[in-house]
Amino acid sequence: MIRKFFWFVALFIIAPSVISVAWSFGANWPNSFRDANWSSSGTGTNPRAHREAIIQVYAARAGRWKGIFGVHTWILLKPEGASRFERFEVVGWGRPVRRNMRAADAYWYSNPPFVVRDVRGSLASRLIPKIRKTIARYPSNARGDYQVWPGPNSNSFVAWVARAFPELEIELPPTAVGKDYVGPGVQITHPPSGTGWQISFGGYGGATISRKEGFELHLLGGTIGIDPDDLAIKVPAVGTMSLYQIFSD
After folding, report:
1. How far is CA 114 from the centre of its chain?
2. Whole-number Å distance between alpha carbons of 226 and 220
3. Domain span at 75
């Protein structure tokens, strides 16, 4: 039993982390916050070219050593006819929740962003005012509330909003460390996608079974899982490895 556990940890936790460390050092981290690129990546949706209401969730690798293990996520809202997005996210200094701190599709610590979820049309139009009100009620928005690990952090915030609106079916990346923090102690709730159930032990451990996320084990903020919906496996630090991605490449 001990030997099997050792090989499980080596294969699904240590090996992916080593791969991510090698990738991160090869990516040439900026020397400091000021040296990093925070400008628009130019890859986002042009709001002036799309009149419909849009809700998007973005992610990008976190800065410096945190980027080895996870991503930073944020939420974009654009009402119908609006000419710009509103960007909402949580940071680790001052009051955590920030509005329009960066461009909608900005690099995060020089790391390019990618779209996690994109919802448009009547559903987005109906939910945007409700999402704004929900964000205003975020319970961990006082100075000192932010905790990089196990949470509440930037990913805990996006997951909290996602759980409030299960019709959006937002499945956060397994590298969104902190998404499984839902409060101290034992918590039983829905995962961010709202399509199943999750148990969390203060963000340090837990499990999820869900139509969108599949089956996940959570250990110290990392995620190990099988996702039949995407024909994928999930491992800490590296994230989702899907057959769809392999064949599309």
Report:
1. 11
2. 18
3. 2-248
Number of domains, the chain: 1
What is the SS3 string spanning 179-213? CCCCCCCEEEECCCCCCEEEEEECCCEEEEEECCC
The tens digit of pLDDT for each residue in 69-102 reads: 899 999 999 999 999 999 999 999 999 999 999 9
Q: What is the pLDDT of residue 155?
A: 98
Amino acid 8: pLDDT: 44
- Cα–Cα separations (whole angstroms), residue 47 to 69, 129, 138, 223: 32, 18, 27, 34
- The alpha carbon of 129 is separated from its chain's Cα centroid by a whole number of angstroms, namely 22
> Do the Cβ atoms of 127 and 134 come closer than 8 Å?
no
- The whole-model pTM stands at 0.91
